[in-house]
Amino acid sequence: ALGCQTTHSNQEVLQSCSLVIFATKPHVLPAVLAEVAPVVTAEHILVSVAAGVSLSVLEEEGAMVMARGRHARSSETKLLQDLLEACGWCEEVPEAYMDVHTGLSGSGVAFVCVFSEALAEGAIKMGMPSGLAHRIAAQTLLGTAKMLLQEGQHPAQLRTDVCTPAGTTIHGLHALEQGGLRAATMSAVEAATCRAKELSRK
After folding, report:
1. CB-based burial label for 133 (10 Å; 0-12, 13-18, 19+)
2. Beta strands in 117-201, from DSSP E residues, in sequence order
3. Less CB within 10 Å around the terminal CB: N or C of the chain?
4. Is 80 exceeded by the pLDDT of residue 49?
């Protein structure tokens, strides 16, 4: 209905496309790579978004990877970056940062959802209807993220800007500090990163 071509054959995808994105679960990827290896050529650009699968593992399977280094050229890096930026911000980083990125951004989606839910539940506790509270919480996160990205300022600066002496925000921030929000969040990113590293070693 959308004009997209589909197939049940992984090899057929590589025979039809030069840039292929592997978006499988990590434990499935080795079998998929083995399946398509016979039809991979030097002209293919292969991209993996599977958590915990290192470039060396991909290369052992006979696949070329889209990462600056052994095989990828600057033009290929630019092509992939342009494609990914259609969905959002994209930046090339060393492979060593990949597990940290998984802990921060990949798992961070769930962490932010928990925080958004907690924000809304605080408002619900104080008498606001649930649907409205969740919409406002999500919009608050969206607006804050836009300000951080557009202004390019450190979060601490924006936090300071909205804190009036003896006002509502500083009282709320005090409660967050008492609850250990910072430490818990840092520990969550650390735990997710460590788990990603464990998956990489497997």
Report:
1. buried
2. none
3. N
4. no
How many residues comprise the chain? 202
Contact assessment for residue 82 and residue 88, using Cβ atoms and an 8 Å cutoff: no
Residue 128 pLDDT grade (very low, low, confident, very high; cuts 50, 70, 90)? very high
CA distances to 102, 103, 104, 110 from 119, in Å = 24, 22, 20, 14
Per-residue pLDDT at 68 exceeds 80: no
Task: Report how far residue 185's alpha carbon sits from residue 191's, in angstroms, rounded to the nearest whole number.
Answer: 10
The answer to whether the CB of 46 falls within 8 A of the CB of 76 is: no
Task: Look at residue 177 and give its three-state secondary structure.
Answer: helix
Structure tokens at 37: 């290896």
Strand partners, 48: 22
pLDDT at 41: 84
Model's pTM, two decimal places?
0.65
